[in-house]
Amino acid sequence: MTPIQHNLQQIRERISAAAARCGRDPAEITLLAVSKTKPASAVEEATAAGQLAFGENYVQEGVDKIQALNNSALAWHFIGPLQSNKSRLVAENFAWCHTVDRLKIAARLNEQRPADLPPLNVLIQINISDEQSKSGIMLAALPDLAREIAQLPRLTLRGLMAIPAPEADYQHQLAVCRRMASAFSELKKSYASVDTLSLGMSDDMDAAIEAGTTMVRIGTAIFGARDYGATN
Q1: How far from 131 is each of 8, 174, 189, 196, 217, CA to CA, in Å?
Q2: What whole-number distance in Å separates Cα of residue 89 and Cα of residue 36?
Q3: Is 6 helix (H, G, I), strand (E, B) or coil?
């Protein structure tokens, strides 16, 4: 077993344990392996261990891996900030975009999604900790943006994503995650397509699972420390 495969096993066990503690089925929680700055060979190692969902933060780097691996079994998620001039690459190559936070980007993704591909799955990014340095909308703006996105035929609104501010105290983590889970529950009432809450990383995964997340995003704990000199 390679280090990546060993790490994946440990993360899966941690997800199962966290789910068991709050009476949830671990099968309800998707593990998204964040492969940013890592080579395609690392993704192949993870794929050999049964991991099929991967997240990328940098558009061109992600596209290069998608094209190099050319594996239709893999689901590629774009999880980084998206600039308008990169939207076509996301629309043409990824299955998911987690970071939609304005109608302009949603409209571009809709226009640029190829007709021969299924609609692009999108999540609305919420700035749940009200951090000026973070992307995302305030919760108060969610109903209007969700309504606008739901009308775009080449997109499918699947739910919400957030990156809470770092917080060491578990109860504080849980309180923030529950605010997101509440917003997710309300959104589900209005849109049948909504089924995904992308919330929880290595440091707050347990709290996110207790709150009700359906997708956790784990990178370094699977692939090891990152070399940011390799990004583009």
Answers
A1: 31, 18, 28, 23, 20
A2: 16
A3: helix
The total of other beta-carbon atoms located within 10 Å of residue 187's CB is 18
Cα–Cα distance between 184 and 181 in angstroms, integer? 5
Question: pLDDT below 50 — which residues of the chain?
Answer: 230-232
Residue 228: the pLDDT is 65
Mean of pLDDT over the chain: 96
Assign 105 to helix, strand or coil. helix
Handedness of CA 222, 224, 225, 226 (dihedral sign): negative
Q: Between the CA atoms of 7, 11, 12 and 18, what dihedral angle is there, to the nearest 10 degrees?
A: 160
pTM above 0.90, yes or no: yes
Q: Look-up: residue for tokens 């949830």?
A: 24
Identify whether the C-beta of residue 30 lies closer than 8 Å to the C-beta of residue 54: no
The token pair at 114 is 């190829």
* Cα–Cα dist 211/166, whole Å: 17
CA-nearest of 166, 90, 156 to 128 is 166
CB 207 within 8 A of CB 14: no
CB-side neighbour CA atoms (13 Å) of 165: 11
DSSP per residue over 105-172, as a string?
Answer: HHHHHHHHS-TTSPPEEEEEEE-TT--TTS--B-GGGHHHHHHHHHT-TTEEEEEEEE-PPP---HHH
> Residue 158 corresponds to which tokens in the numbers above?
């699947």
Q: How far apart are CA 130 and CA 137, in angstroms?
A: 9
Tokens of 106: 């949603």
